[in-house]
Amino acid sequence: MSSPSERFEKSLTNDNLWIYILNLLKKEKLYAYEINEKIEKRFGFYPGNMTAYIILKRLQMEGYVKAARTEKSSGPERKYYTITKRGETELKKAKNIYARMKNLI
Strand locations in the chain, DSSP E? Predict the structure, then answer.
């Protein structure tokens, strides 16, 4: 059984992965495969391998990110994701919530 602090950390990381993804996409366009590595490097945790794909699909369907395929002269075609204005607005809301929570502790 996990402790309350372990459950809290999970809720702030894997359960709210969309925040981390939007944060990364605000800085640069990315393809799904590289997102997990960037999350681990920048935020210190590694989400499940398929999780980023699932979250990106949901974010795209809800209009928070958009995707565009790019052709390359060598290597596979990739689908790059970028944050939309709607996604930026939602990210700002999440940051405000985190700021309020920070004042609780």
Answer: 30-31, 65-70, 78-83
Residue 59 belongs to a domain with what CATH number? 1.10.10.10
Q: Which long-range contacts (CB under 8 A, 24 or more apart) does 49-57 make?
A: 51/14, 51/17, 52/17, 52/21, 55/17, 55/18, 55/21, 56/21, 56/32, 56/81
Domain assignment of residue 44, given as a range: 4-102
Q: What's the pTM value of the predicted model, to 2 decimals?
A: 0.86
pLDDT computed for residue 76 by the predictor: 78
Q: For 28, list phi and psi in degrees, rounded to 5.
A: -165, 155
pLDDT digits (tens, 9 = 90+) for 1-56: 889 988 888 877 778 899 999 999 999 999 988 999 999 999 998 888 788 899 99
Q: How many domains does the chain have?
A: 1
